[in-house]
Each structure stands twice: as structure tokens, then as C-alpha cells.
Write a structure and sequence with these properties.
The chain is built from 13 helices and 10 strands. The protein is an alpha/beta fold.
Length: about 350
């Protein structure tokens, strides 16, 4: 961890330089990009009423005037908790001698929160649409609570950042399309991604917006690129029933098509996709099962934050999302033993 004085840190902040760059965005992806904003607003609201601690999200997204429903807040709590537990299990197994690649990261703040807990991997990468990355980099550049931790870990005096890429010693943000794997790999390697290191890849509500063929190609690329790896996928499940159909229709009305929904039929179909694309082990739980496994003290704490009228609605919602994880290699590290 760095030992810069506040003054030295302030001086180094001015070392973040940027050069403008334009990017053309596919209009068809607009609805998908909109889901990033939705997720950020929901997380910001849940944090504001005490569901979990995140002092960084306020620097990326405004607090919505619109109150979010209690079942939505509990759903996000379970999602953040579940993904975080798996990330920390991977970091423990590898003793942080690893890298993390967050695919479709949006305004995620995991890098800063891991740094606060002294749990940073060797390098943390984020990838998203160039338009989203440009917005995230603007916040980082303008807000010292975001830029200082990056500079503190960076050995050079200056940190180059253009419209949709930032590369530093321990953190990189890359604007790329996950459907263009050659571009993705080229940009990651340019930012010193090391295929020899144990690697954790994370995708939260990302694969479902790709066609089954596109998501299969991404999963295959990930399995083939790293000898020792883990993949975490959070997204919809049990989408064949009436509730699932309503979810699909609601998103479609907002010009957001779930192109990969056929893979979200069941926990089995989710695991099968991972196993048939190069992964050696695969596990999956729906979010209600995960919620029921939460420590009782934590459940009591969050349930006291606000009144939930219909437990049935929470259950229905949670049964339609799942957390999946897969591993490949890393037997000597015990990656196969990782579970929620």
C-alpha cells in the first residue's frame, strides 16, 4: 500500500492526463447499455439505506429520487454478497497472486473495495462498451477518492488515459466489445494481461444479452486462454415460465432484447453451457437458495432496514436469477473446492 502524504497524493492527481478519442456506438446496443445505468442506480439506492457498505458508488452515480422496492434491494444485496464471497474465495486460494477480469463491469467498484481490504490481485481489469468506459474514466479523472488509490499503486509519475482506456500497474479499464474476441484479447494483452497467472473472470447480467453462439465463443476463449481459471456468471434462470415471460416483455419494451435467454432455462442449462465450452467443473444456485444460506444475523440486519409486504414476490424474483461458477485447472490451488 502507498504511503503518499495527502499533499503528494494531490500533486500526483494532476498527473492523470487524457487525450480525447471518439467512438462509434451501435444503436442496437443502447438498451443493453441502459441496463448499466439501472443497475448502478439500484446499487446506489440500496447502499444509501444501509444494505452494504460502498463509499465509492456515490462518485459514479447520483442518488435516485425514486425509491426502489424492498425486494429489488434485497435482490441486489444477495447478488453483491454472493459474487463477493466467490471473489474472496478465489483470492484466498491464490493468495492474491492472480488477476481478475470483470467483463461488462459498468460502474462496478470492486477494485476500490478490495484495495481497502488489502485483497487486491496482481492486476484488476475491467471491460465494457467504449461509451460506458468513457463515462467511468471521466468520473475517475475528476474525483480524487477514485483516482488517488490508482495513483498510489502506480510506479510511474504519469498515468495515460484516453477516451476509452486506462492502464496502470494494478488496474486497467478497457473499452471493447465482448463479441469481438480478437479485439478483446489484443487490448487486454496491451494492458499486460498475463495468461500464466490464475485468472478469475466475472460476468454479471452480460451473457444473456449475447446470442448463445456469442456467449459460447466468449466462454471458450476464456477457458482456452488460461490454464488455471474460474468464471463467475450471474444472470437470469427459469425463464420459461409466466414470470420469466413478463420479465422478457418488460425489457423488450425498453428496446432491450435478451438474445441469450434460451440458455437461461434452468440451473442445468446454465451449468451445461459452461461444461460444453471448456470448463471442467460447474455449479449453480438460484438466488433464493443463496438468500436462504446467508448468515442469520445478516438476514435479520437487512430485513430490519425496511418492511417487505410480500415475501412471495421476493421469492418469485430470486428464483429467476442465479449465481454460477466454473473452474478449469488449478488443482494444486484447490480451485475446484470453491463453493458458495
Amino acid at each position: 500500500m502507498g504511503t503518499s502524504t495527502p499533499m503528494a497524493t494531490r500533486q500526483r492527481e494532476s498527473s492523470i492526463t487524457s487525450c480525447c478519442s471518439t467512438s462509434s456506438c451501435d444503436a442496437d446496443d443502447e438498451g443493453v447499455r441502459g441496463t448499466c445505468e439501472d443497475a448502478s442506480l439500484c446499487k446506489r439506492f440500496a447502499v444509501s439505506i444501509g444494505y452494504w457498505h460502498d463509499p465509492y458508488i456515490q462518485h459514479f452515480v447520483r442518488l435516485s429520487k425514486e425509491r426502489k422496492a424492498p425486494e429489488i434491494n434485497r435482490g441486489y444485496f444477495a447478488r453483491v454478497h454472493g459474487v463477493s464471497q466467490l471473489i474472496k474465495a478465489f483470492l484466498r486460494k491464490t493468495e492474491c497472486h492472480c488477476q481478475i477480469v470483470n467483463l461488462g463491469a459498468g460502474m462496478d467498484t470492486t477494485f476500490w473495495r478490495l484495495k481497502d481490504e488489502d485483497l487486491l490481485p496482481s492486476k484488476y481489469f475491467e471491460v465494457d462498451f467504449p461509451m460506458i468506459v468513457t463515462r467511468k474514466l471521466h468520473s475517475i479523472k475528476c474525483k480524487p477518492p477514485l483516482s488517488s488509490p490508482i495513483l498510489e499503486l502506480h510506479s510511474e509519475d504519469t498515468l495515460q488515459m484516453d477516451g476509452h482506456i486506462l492502464d496502470s500497474k494494478r488496474y486497467a479499464v478497457i473499452g471493447a466489445d465482448l463479441r469481438d474476441l480478437s479485439e478483446l484479447e489484443e487490448k487486454l494483452k496491451k494492458c499486460n494481461m498475463n495468461t500464466q497467472l490464475p485468472t478469475l473472470l466475472i460476468a454479471e447480467c452480460v451473457l444473456v444479452y449475447m446470442t448463445p453462439e456469442q456467449s459460447a465463443n466468449l466462454l471458450k476463449w476464456a477457458a482456452n486462454s488460461f490454464e488455471r481459471a474460474m468464471f463467475i456468471n450471474y444472470e437470469q434462470v427459469n425463464m420459461g415460465d409466466r414470470f420469466g415471460q413478463i420479465m422478457i416483455e418488460n425489457l423488450r419494451r425498453r428496446q432491450c432484447d435478451l438474445a441469450g435467454v434460451e440458455t437461461c432455462k434452468s440451473l442445468e442449462s446454465q451449468k451445461e453451457r459452461l461444461l460444453s465450452n471448456g470448463w471442467e467443473t460447474a455449479s449453480a444456485v438460484d438466488m433464493m437458495e443463496l438468500y436462504n444460506r446467508l448468515p442469520r444475523a445478516e438476514v435479520s440486519r437487512i430485513e430490519s432496514l425496511e418492511f417487505l409486504d410480500e415475501m412471495e414476490l421476493l421469492e418469485q424474483l430470486m428464483r429467476h436469477y442465479c449465481l454460477c461458477w466454473a473452474t478449469k485447472g488449478g488443482n494444486e490451488l484447490g480451485l475446484k473446492e470453491i463453493t458458495y
